[in-house]
Amino acid sequence: MEKVSAACAMDWSIKLEKALRSKNPVRAVEAILETGEKLQQWSKEPEPGTAVYSLFGLVPEEDRLFYNTILLRVVDAFCYGDKLVKVAVVRVFMSVFKLSRGKSKSDCESWFLSKAKVYNHLEMLKRVKHVYDKGDSEAKALALILFGCWRDFASEFAPVRYLIFTSLVSSHDLEVRSSLFAAGCFCEVADDFALVVLGMLNDMVKFPELMPKTRLAAVRVYAKMGSSHAIANRAFKICMTLMMESSKDDSLVAFLVSLTKLSSRSTHLASELAEVIMPFLCEDKSSHVRAAVLRCLHFLIKRGMCFSLVHVSETATFSSLLKQADLSADMQLKALQIFQKILVYKLCLADPSELHQLIALVENASQSQIFSSSSLAISILVGIWKEIVRTAEIRSIDVSSTSLPLQLVVLVMDRLTSLAQLCSDPCQVDFALVGEVQDLFNVLHLLVGKQSEVRLLVLDKVRLFLVNLTDGLRKPDGAHELLLGVINYKSKRGVVVRSELLASIHKFLIVFLENVECDNKSVLSQVYEKVKRVTECVRSCTFFDCHTQMIFTLLLHSPVLWGSNNDADGDSGVSLVDDMFNYGIVSLECSTQIIAERNYWPAYRAGVYAARLGAWVTSALIFDKLKTNAESDINSFWLKSLTYLSHAEGKLQLLLMPSGSFKLVNWLKSNSCLPELSKDASGEFAHCIALHEAYMNLQSSLGMLGNIKASSEVFSFQTWFLVLKTRVMETVIDLVEYLGLLNQDVCNKKQVTGCNSLKQLPRISIQLQKLAKEFDMLETCFVDIDSSSSSIISTLSLSCSVLAFAAGVVIFIPRFSFHETLPPFTSQIGVCSRLVQDLVQRLWKVDPKICELLSMLVKENESQSCSHVQPRNQVLKVCNKVKMLLSVCRDVLACIHGLQNWSNSMQEEDIMSEISKSCRNLLSQAVMKWMQIPFGIPKYFFNIRPCVGAELFALSSDRSKSTTETISVEQGFQLSLDLCLQLKNIQQPRVPVRLTKLYCLLYTKLAYHTPIQHGETTRNQKSYSPWRDEDLVEMSGKLFHHAVTKSGKKPEVSGRFDWSIGVSAVVQFQPNERGQGFSSCLLDVSRFPIGSYQIKWLSGCIDQHGSYWNLLPLSGKLVFTVKKAS
């Protein structure tokens, strides 16, 4: 458990005292600055509570005592130290003071240098005042800065006020500027002081002999006159008058800045200021002033001010600024940003006619020359268009007639083409240029989206970009290529730059293909042909290595293109399939060449990419060859695990591929590669055999991971994912064998006939639904997971839910009862309701019509619970895989309605055989469709890093009857705990979330009784494996609904898990910047008999986007002991 600053205060105070007594002045300065950094960290931490004092063994208020001691010691150093020491002390207090900027008045009352926190503030003021009285001008200036930093208590001290007033009229400029700083700080908290300073500033600014720096400092003080509306209004008028009288540009800019900050507190003042300074953009003002005006207007508009600027004339003014050639690029960008903010506000109120006028205005603005040279300007313009599209969708306004999207695509691609020419020149290329290319491709993603009309144009432009790049690398110089280009691009730097450029194009194409949603096979064929031309362009350039050529070739294995062409009909369809298999062989040959060249890391990356795309034969070949070259046990086991996983998926893929797959098999046989995948898989029971072999390979893959001797945090996602895939495969095999699906041998031992076979379905259905929940749990337990991986897991979870619904088809027949096969305390109606509820929860944003049909299957009072909340990070992305699962749902719904009609019109004996036949046909088709879906592997599966999680530390609040090593409570009493929740691995660049709320659920019951061996402590030290905890899903659901209930949402009814038989408590924490929170709780264990019990716990959080996440427990379960009452 990491110590908080309050627990370190005593040590810091002692170390500071030792350093200040040192005879080495440099050591004293270093100690003071080091203390300043610690004080900054301390000021960001929440106020310590009783839990902090208890866990760290502190006396209450001990931290405040040492805090004030540290402040006094630093002030003493200022009083008696030399100039370097004094400057160091001022830097410390300035750094702490800056942290209060932007805080509200209520927050400032309890901040780190407030009067409530600094007990000995009078003593500090007297000591620094003594330095002011006895020191020279530099010492006085430093003392005045300290007074400004201590404004909360110094502004009430009359002698200090007098010193500031007298220093304002001093003959030393340094002292005057320091007094202006202190006066500005005091004006923010003291109205009476501000009135006096306001009168003095008016005379000071007009004084002709005042130094320019001092005059600018005086003008800046006006910006701090905002403690009350009356003073701000008065200061605004005075400052406005002075600005109109000023003739110097430097003073004019300073006045503009101060007026802008004053007017940001009032819409009336902001509008008045805008009316005055708008003409400055058209008058003959210097570029310096015009740029300042644009910055001021942008500052106000960002804060929602200046509503007068949204009129048509002002909007047109900013649009016209984009075409003024005399304006610099920076000024045009600022004008464009203001134009964007104004349009966003106008879109909120625009009717259809006004919206089309705005579109015309944007089209006119897009003709500016700035868009041919600035990627940032293009991104702003694309952002404006996206806002227009969003508004049009909300208000159902048709904007398809505009050509603006095509214009924007041309702008982006023309800029990319010009950058390609620069990138091909080794004298001009640098990483900033590469970054600009990456940014433009990101903008292109936003622009293209799902608009089919611009996709083909974009692919042509991407190919043109590659052609310009490769042509630039092959510039002829007589009979030879440019020697400089060869040298630079053969060097390490050239390889890195070239790789970054190609990676940007490749990433764009990946996401581009993922977003292609089109049922028109002719359009998909055109997309395939254009991607193929891009691939050929890369393969034709000798500067690109085999790894680059391979990953571009694998683009043709994208699930969108692969699935559509596999289903193609006619001669064209056959030629496309053959073509794709030929490129599959090309990728195999490239992988063989990469490994032969001993480029193992590029080979591994290519194997990872092939696995993510579902090119399992290629990935199996790469991992199979790499595992023999692994130099460590961890690498060897990891590669073996990936090999088994690729074999499991590759076996099913080859079986379900069209007839053209024999080319791949023949290539494998001729090259003596992957004998398991190249053997004949045809036969009557091929599908069942493939399922069994896939299951065995998944088990082997999981076993290889278990052999890795590494921290359980590192491979937790991989292990959990493989465990769930193995369980799903095992459950599907049970379903196939019990019902004799997929031409299963009728002599199979598991197969049963008649009604007995149907009675196995409810158990399998419940098991599949539980696996769907576990996939949900997996997705929410890793806060740094990427969106594509999250989408894959959501689709896997949906597939389990759909299979559970299909397997539970017989439960929806009211005349048949399955109570004897259901778990205890589970009703048939309840199972039906949960199956429907689970599907509706996942599909209500994807297909509302199916949700309506599903809701009709259960009673009205049961269907009401289907509209419960869902984590924002678990929303499904509509794709071809989801569409295939939706078709299974429709088949199940049709089957249920048919069975219900038959059961009402026929006798039970007559209907049984028909029901059994219908269920087998339905489930056979469902399993076959499920096997054909290319789920792929999450990108996050290949992130080998410690996962983000939490550790829980607990001590009994009653320290008189417990120790730091044990938690105990007397029988008949409640257990009071002081808790510390410590997040692990959260402070990493790869973690993109910021936590706003933190929760922890503690749960125990009599069944968690555990024997305590001699020497054991309060914690079960065994490594935690979440996939083995049966209560984890239910605990996650309770914690999630507690979190959203705090936000006003309706909680979900707890499923089959009975919380009444145990004791639970949900604790909320306030995390500090290090991810550490403290709190206390009570567990009512008064009815527990004497003995030792485990406490299961799970923590969760809500991030800045409102998404809920679980945090993996990285420490064992807590153990407490109930003792006999004394």
Describe this protein's structure.
- The protein is an alpha+beta fold and 1126 residues long.
- Helix content is 61%, strand content 7%.
- It has 7 domains: 99 residues, no CATH class; 72 residues, no CATH class; 114 residues; 92 residues; 127 residues; 267 residues, no CATH class; 168 residues, Sandwich (Immunoglobulin-like).
- The protein contains 46 helices and 11 strands.
- The strands form 2 sheets. Strands 3, 4, 5, 6, 7, 8, 9, 10 and 11 form a 9-stranded mixed beta sheet that branches. It has a two-stranded antiparallel sheet with strand order 1-2.
- Strand 9 and strand 10 form a beta hairpin.
- Helix 8 runs parallel beside helix 11, helix 23 runs parallel beside helix 26 and helix 32 packs antiparallel against helix 33.
- It holds the Pfam family INTS7_N.
- Keywords: Cytoplasm, Nucleus.
- Its main location: cytoplasm.
- Belongs to the Integrator subunit 7 family.
